[in-house]
Specification:
The protein is an alpha/beta fold. The protein is built from 11 helices and 28 strands. The chain has 3 domains: about 1-265, Spore Coat Polysaccharide Biosynthesis Protein SpsA, Chain A, CATH 3.90.550; about 285-350, no CATH class; about 365-465, Jelly Rolls (Sandwich), CATH 2.60.120.10. It has a 6-stranded antiparallel beta sheet, with no helix packed on it. It has a 5-stranded mixed beta barrel with strand order 5-8-6-7-11.
Amino acid sequence: MITPVLLCGGSGTRLWPLSRKSYPKQFAPLLGDRTLFQASAERLSGADFAAPIVLTNADFRFIVGEQLADIGIEPGAVLIEPSGRNTAPAVLAAALWLARTDPEALMLVAPSDHVVPDAAAFRQAVAAGMDTARGGRLVTFGIKPNHAETGYGYLELDGDACDFSPHPIGLKRFVEKPDADTAANMLSQDTYLWNAGIFLFKASAILDAFRIHAPQLISPVEAAIEKSLPDLGFHRLDPMAWAEAEDISIDYAVMEKATNLSVIPFAGSWSDLGDWDAVWRETGPDARGVATSGQATAIDCDNTLLRSEDGGLEVVGIGLDNIIAVAMPDAVLVADVSRAQDVKEVVSALKTKGRKQAESFPKDHRPWGWFESLVMGDRFQVKRIHVHPGAALSLQSHHHRSEHWIVVEGTAKVTIDDKVTLVTENQSVYIPLGAVHRMENPGKVPMVLIEVQTGTYLGEDDIIRYEDIYARG
């Protein structure tokens, strides 16, 4: 039995504007109906796998729970990282957590934003490494390269990969992201694989490796685990102890120093969807190299990606060549394909300008559902609010705004001061400034309403919470 460890705290800035700090790429359905996170969880499920351990941050904890519930997977534990400290502390925390019950348990560490179309073939590769991992070695997985990629690190094998069938091979060294000429040279050989950042080992084996190669991480991460607190089914690692852990990747902290590593080649299709160029390839371009998604139309285009992430927004390209165009309700990216790796610079540029699009997603996801702003003026804002069945917003009040709610789908249970009423479709209710209020969805179908806010200040921080079933401050 293998315990998957899913890492899902990254922001994926190279896929802006679809991927942002508030809602990164792993939670988006980039390819198909499933999100990357859901596809990763499903790929590492079944008879040979235990319930997954998930490491994420507080902002994503309810998204993790909701998306796993949607595909019928119950997590073994969801560990909340108080701050981003890179992959080494995260992997160590998972190993310590697992070792409390079974030090000899196998754990498969995987990012949650990779695309592996042939899940069965990948599981065969994992199975090929199980005996090696049980023997105490640290097993990593290398992808057979199919082009001279400069955006990935490489693994140099201690021998020929032969037919690239899944079998353990010794690892000679890790290779940093190469330039184009070096990547082309490595592609021509059978001794280099892309570094997938996926690992299989016993909990005890990786803990021994940390003690040898990164002992400075042991004390703070152990303390963060020991002082962790349960929170609505999640486990919050202690923030003060966690802050003392070095911000470092598992590769730098352990893997590049360890001498007991083996590599399992994987010749199947794989991508980390690290930029829009990778998305273009995985979307399946036509004979002219054109890939479209959503409400997008290409006319006489070549080697171009057109995506619309808004059902009401049509993207049309005419005579384009080597262009990426991605449209969101609040932002549009247009870039040359050769500059796909530079999209991350957009985030820094927008942050300098103070634009909320740098990090904030147009849909604001909350534990009870989501909302989006439809129209905003100097003293008013119109929102669409979606509340999951059985969910409830906090009991709250506002200093600076009043609100009108118009129910357009389902039924809302509305509390205003000491009065509770049911508001059905096509009915509305007014919440005066300062009134203590709450909305709930008592039904079994989603409830949708239009909210019209009026007042001198309409920021999300104008909320005083009195009760909250999600334990938010």
